[in-house]
User: Fold this.
Amino acid sequence: MQKVSSEKDYSVRAEILSNDEFGKITKGFNEMLVQIQNRDRELNKYKEHLEEEVKKRTEDLERLNIRLEKEIVEVRRMEEVVAKSATEWRTTFDSIKDSIFLLDGSGNVLRCNKSAKDMLNLDYQSIIDNNIVDLIYKSFIEECGLYTAMKDKTRVSNILKIEEKVYQVFFDPILSNDRLLGFVHIMSDITEKQILDENIKQIQKM
Assistant:
């Protein structure tokens, strides 16, 4: 019994020396040791299983962390690429001398370049989400090719005079499987060309 209590060795058994009351107690004690030994054996198995499971879960988490770190690096790289591409696109878009408006299917402005902003003498906030007819064509409905382009789903070109300026304007539909998504509206300042043509005509008449 001392070995059991001091060393927690439940494999030892007490010797049964008689069949009397003391022998029954000894037998009961041995049966208790068997139960404790079996319990410890099950506990040790469970502990080993738990340790293996914890080790496996830890390894899985480590692999997951490595994968997530790689994915985060890739996402950041892609964000940098997208941001760089967007900057390059905006720089190119704003460097075009013609006024360009990207419109939705109803003619509302989704985006415009710097030339368009400068032509209207408005800030971007005052242009975006407003209809191109309200911005430019209220007094020039006949010259506005939006509705014809909307109806025929084809490019429409007109000449538009605004004060001293002359523009050649285009409405180019954006289509997907014959479904109208929007328009690219371009306004090219041809004032100098018009003046030059008039001068040439005057010279030819002389």
Observations:
- The beta strands are 99-104, 109-112, 156-162, 165-176, 179-189.
- Confidence is low (pLDDT under 50) at residues 1-7.
- The radius of gyration is 43 Å.
- The chain has seven helices and five strands.
